[in-house]
Amino acid sequence: MARIANFPMNLLREHAQWHMDHMDETSPGEGVAFLDFHHGFIGQFHAWYDQQPGASQAAVAPWNALPAAVVAHLQPAQATALAAIAADPTAFPTEDALGIAIHPLHDDIHVAAAVAFKEAGLGNPMKAPRFTEFWQLHGLIDGWRGRWLQAHP
Question: Is 129 in contact with 7 (CB distance < 8 Å)?
Fold first, then answer.
């Protein structure tokens, strides 16, 4: 668990506000909104982070898969659904359907990661971006989106 020093408050507020404004995770359009927002947010993060002294790309590199410690703290149905998404994100008929499938599970991953890594802040939208695991998780999700976009030009 690594906390990112001097994390910008404007990025924390932007992330928290986005989630406050998008509580209906299964409405049409919300899946694309979720995926697009976080894709752009990763870009904003790197525009800041990559300029910081001691920035470690390895510390914020996307996970290749959900860590076993996180999966262990998910309900079996959640773990099964996430495994299916990870196995073939291209199976969803639309990008929106992919995002709608991921968004509520993403919330569950944040809670499971908070427990697994003993850091309650990972479960709080105003605090989670301060931790390297946030970026690792969102990099993984962005990778699923990238695979979907590549298969559905």
Answer: yes
